[in-house]
Amino acid sequence: MFKWFATIGLLVISNTFMTLAWYGQIAFKSKFERLSIIAIILISWGVALAEYSFMIPANRIGSAAFGGPFTLWQLKVIQEVISLSVFTIFMLVCMRNEALRWNHIAGFFCLILAVYFIFKK
């Protein structure tokens, strides 16, 4: 059970850094607009390094190949669901000019179905 929780926790942290690396420069435009694109890329790479520092251990701990509870298929689908969940929270908190609509919720429901089918024996 520890490996299950450790994997999920590390993936949440990793995807938080990923979202900031990819979209932080848009969300915090006023703080980044004076920087060159090269500077923004380098800052994003630094944040992405933190992402990988959590993603790699999460995949190793969670992978059945290393004694974890998940197949690679399951790990990938879990990661995608976590990624979109973190992104949704980021959008609702930082990007208030973009609304959460019914089609987004329908898409999330499809992801929940994907998790169901991936975990089905």
Structure summary:
The chain is flat, with a radius of gyration of 16 Å. Helix content is 80%, strand content 0%.
Following the backbone from N to C, one meets helices and strands in this order, namely HHHHH
Average pLDDT metric: 90
Derived from helix and strand composition plus strand pairing, the structural class reads: mainly alpha
Q: In DSSP terms, counting alpha (H) and pi (I) runs of 4 or more, how many helices?
A: 5
Describe this structure in words.
The chain has 121 residues and is an all-alpha fold. It contains five helices and no strands. The relative contact order is 0.15. Helix 1 (2-27) packs antiparallel against helix 3 and helix 1 (2-27) crosses helix 4 (72-94).
Which descriptors apply to this entry?
121 residues; mainly alpha; flat; 5 helices
Helices and strands in order:
Elements: H1 2-27, H2 29-32, H3 37-62, H4 72-94, H5 102-119
Helix pairs in contact: 1-3, 1-4, 4-5
